[in-house]
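User: I'll paste a sequence; please echo it back and then give the predicted structure.

Assistant: Echoing your sequence first, then the prediction.
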Amino acid sequence: VEVKIEVVIPEKERSKEEMSPNGKASPLIYKVNGTARHYHLEEHPIASNPYHNPKDVVEASVCHVKDLENGQMREVDLGCGKALLIKENGEFHAMGHKCPHYGAPLVKGVLSKGRVRCPWHGACFNISTGDIEDFPGLDSLPRFQVKIEKEKVYIRASKQALQTQRRTKMMAKCISLSNYNLSSTNVLIIGAGAAGLLCAETLRQEGFSDRIVMCTMDRHLPYDRPKLSKSMDSHPEQIALRPKEFFCSYDIEVLTEMQVAAVDVKNKVAVFKDGFKMEYNKLLIATGNTPKALSCKGKEVENVFNIRTPEDANRVVKLATSKNVVVVGASFLGMEVAAYLTERAHSVSVVELEEVPFKKFFGERVGRAVMKMFESNRVKFYMQTEVSELREQEGKVKEVVLKSGKVLRADVCVVGIGAVPATGFLKQSGINIDSKGFIVVNKMMQTNIPGVFAAGDAVTFPLALRNNKKVNVPHWQMAHMHGRVTALNMLAHGVELSTIPYLWTAMFGKSIRYAGHGEGFDDVVIQGDVDELKFVAFYTKSDEVVAVASMNYDPIVSKVAECLRAG
């Protein structure tokens, strides 16, 4: 790959760009298969010199230099918006004050070694650039100019950036799409979840200007999947990760309702269910999971759902209103659905094989406290039993019969009993898959086949935190990071995955946050009061803390995540 840099700046911008601290903006020539192609970088809403329009600029004195100690952060008001002011190693930095993911106040987060970690969901931002360095979320933070005059700290910022509180990184565009053969692409991404989208976006951010095609069985563009169980009446456009125009602007093609049936790695061809074939140069498999279905008598009756799409979630809410709901499985999905439906349904019952919800994940004490919280919100539990039959009336579910003999009334049934990796189509491919169906990858997200990568819920990978033990971490944050690392390694950057798993669950307006990987923990050390739902739980293996969970104890989980990251 030859990369040549030329400067092409419109006359009126030239003088401004020459004053810019970041040097000169430049389209690149990227040699692909021996042919030089031009592309242009774009950035919204703030470019390297964000102050083209003087009316859009605000400058304000925000504090005295001695008001902040090293390692401190402060939210400051500039009149038309707020900024986060940070002092580290004697230097001041200013950037957006809200996490672009869900708007958490970053002043309540954790400052550590040149970056701020969000207190809610663990996203991390570089304090010098505002760039997002760990996830969830797609956008970076706007960065503002800081100057010191007569012992006072001034911030100069664009009003637009103060209002939007987010910045999309520079991105390349594809060159002359009209020249392409429809049935071949440079990069093919199977799956349009967080891993697939992050891979496509990172490729464009890194200047990749060839064709990128994503394909998905879903009918929608990539959306915020955790909201399917946490905010069940959200419509697809409300939870879209990027608007349709974004994909058009950056030439990321998305083929919806397209299922890949087989992959021929020798000839680098993906074969779709409808017979269509697409050649690729690099391949990412990010197909995620398929929910497990019930195997009992009557499993084919109507109004029994796995929450797989926004339509499923919306339909369940509609059917559950003032009716009887049975949730099978006290999984994250099952419990979030149960919590969401309590205010809408006449009754909500949860059926679970274990004796306590989340026992394997959070331990018995935390699990019991969560169960108690649900019971005080009218949720009934039927533990240590499973479903033996679904009875119907006019084709629709009417009763759920348990192995214990108990019969529950049910107008709608939601199944959350776990999932299996969606990798069946790879069985004859030669790609290395383990006994549970997970695709095995290394720290660079590479499979055993050169040029074939895999990411997200369908993979096992070596986790540095647990001495490179091969693990499966089916969480939203991890899928983002997998996608980013994949893209960097498609471009031969040689980047290894090194992140601390971070997840959250939300029920009855309360969140449990969790960082680390506690699989196989042998003790739980609790501080605070579990019964009052204000606690932090440390999960240990031998003498080492391997994970942490908390409720109403922010930002402890983000603090521990930074400790784990530092080793």
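The CA atoms of residues 199 and 484 lie 5 Å apart. The domain at 54-164 is CATH 2.102.10.10 (Rieske Iron-sulfur Protein).
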